[in-house]
Each structure stands twice: as C-alpha cells, then as structure tokens.
Write a structure and sequence with these properties.
With 63 residues, the protein is mainly alpha-helical. It has a domain at 25-63. The chain contains two helices and no strands. The radius of gyration is 25 Å and the shape is elongated. Its main location: membrane.
Length: 63
Amino acid sequence: MKNYIDKAGKYYRDVVSEMRKVSWPTRDEVKDMTVVVLTVSGILALFTFSVDWVISTVMGKIL
C-alpha cells in the first residue's frame, strides 16, 4: 500500500512541476481566441444551415 502512496505523491509532484512549465495565455489572448472561436462557429453554423436548407428545398421539389 505504501508503494501506491509513494507513486501517487511522485505523480502529483511531477504534474505540478510540468504545470509550472506551461506558457499560459494572457487574459487578452483568451478574449481574442474566444471571439475567433465564436465567429468561426457562427459562420460554420450559418453555412451548414444554408446547405441543409438548399438540399431540403431541392429534395422537396424533386419528391
């Protein structure tokens, strides 16, 4: 049992050590990336809706 506790402690220390090496984005970078993600998601949603609507309309006319 002690071996598992030692391994868990080493794992935790390793995780903390690696997390200190991470280059975290600034608040402004996070805001900018969020705007980009929301914009691209909106554009893709509109594109998907448009293609679906066109295909549905064409299939409705055919059938």
